[in-house]
Amino acid sequence: MYDQTPPQIEVIPLIKGFTCKALVYLIYSLITFTPFVVGGVLWYRYNIWIAIAFFLFLTLISGVVLSKLRVASIPFAQREMSYSNIEIVKWYVGKNICFMVQDESK
After folding, report:
1. Contacts of 7 (CB under 8 A, 6+ apart)
2. Given this model, what pLDDT does residue 16 score?
3. Residue 97 CB burial class (10 angstroms; 0-12, 13-18, ≥19)
4. Which whole-number Å values give the CA distances from 47 to 22, 36, 56, 59, 97, in the listed order?
5. Smallest Cα–Cα separation from 6: which of 102, 77, 99?
């Protein structure tokens, strides 16, 4: 009955190097702040109703992009756990862009 082992939990990959860390913060800031910036610019240029509509639409798109990053990088056994936006981006960059082979002999 208890012969099944629980799934192994992986930790968030360590991001090493300046370019990888810069890429993490660039992706995070684009996903997080694009709706605010576009909404503010449209509010200044046109009117508040267009700005609100684009802000809500881009917030929805940001959520879809984050969910795609989550599915592409976080292991299946850990997808139900709660992760912040920066943690999802770290998982994605660590697993798909700046992956490094870990030395298993240590």
Report:
1. 77
2. 85
3. middle
4. 34, 15, 15, 18, 39
5. 77
